[in-house]
Amino acid sequence: MMFVRSPRQRRSNHQQRALDAYILQLHHAIAIKLLSQPELIKQCEEQLVQLYHTKQIRHGAYVYWDSVLRLYPEEEAFIAAITDSGPKASKYRRKTPCSGILTEHERQQLMASNAKPHHKSDFHE
Fold first, then answer.
1. Are 62 and 50 in contact (CB under 8 A)?
2. CB within 8 A of 5, min separation 6: which ones?
3. Which pTM value belongs to this model?
4. Is the Cβ–Cβ distance between 36 and 46 less than 8 Å?
5. CA distances from 90 to 11, 32, 67, 112, 125 (A)
């Protein structure tokens, strides 16, 4: 028997992929900003601990994010880890300890351009 997806399921899968792609772009921009403003990494580390202690993330997500944040400030490794396109990374990015790193203006710019920033100088407060 062949499984056929309804139009609603296909639309939902498409929306999920689009959302994952946008979240991936956000995390690329977050990585670039963190590399250009090292004082912000502490905020991510503190949020990670808070998410875990308030049971908003499970141990696996905590370990994942802890290992990603430990790669900082090794630029290539950090960007590669935070923008990993695997399904587990996509799942963990949904509950990120990096919220609040980008300003609303930076998020709006990213949405408008629909492109990844390529350089640290793309972010100015």
1. no
2. 13
3. 0.80
4. no
5. 19, 18, 15, 22, 28
13-72: per-residue pLDDT in tens? Answer: 888 888 999 999 999 999 999 999 999 999 999 999 999 999 999 999 999 999 999 999
Helix (H) or strand (E) holding 72: none
- Looking at residue 118, its pLDDT comes to 47
Cis before 73 (ω within 30):
yes
Taking CB atoms within 8 Å and a gap of at least 24, the contacts of 92-96 are 92/61, 92/64, 92/65, 93/20, 93/23, 93/24, 93/27, 94/23, 95/51, 95/56, 95/57, 95/61, 96/23, 96/27, 96/30, 96/65
Count of residues making up the chain: 125
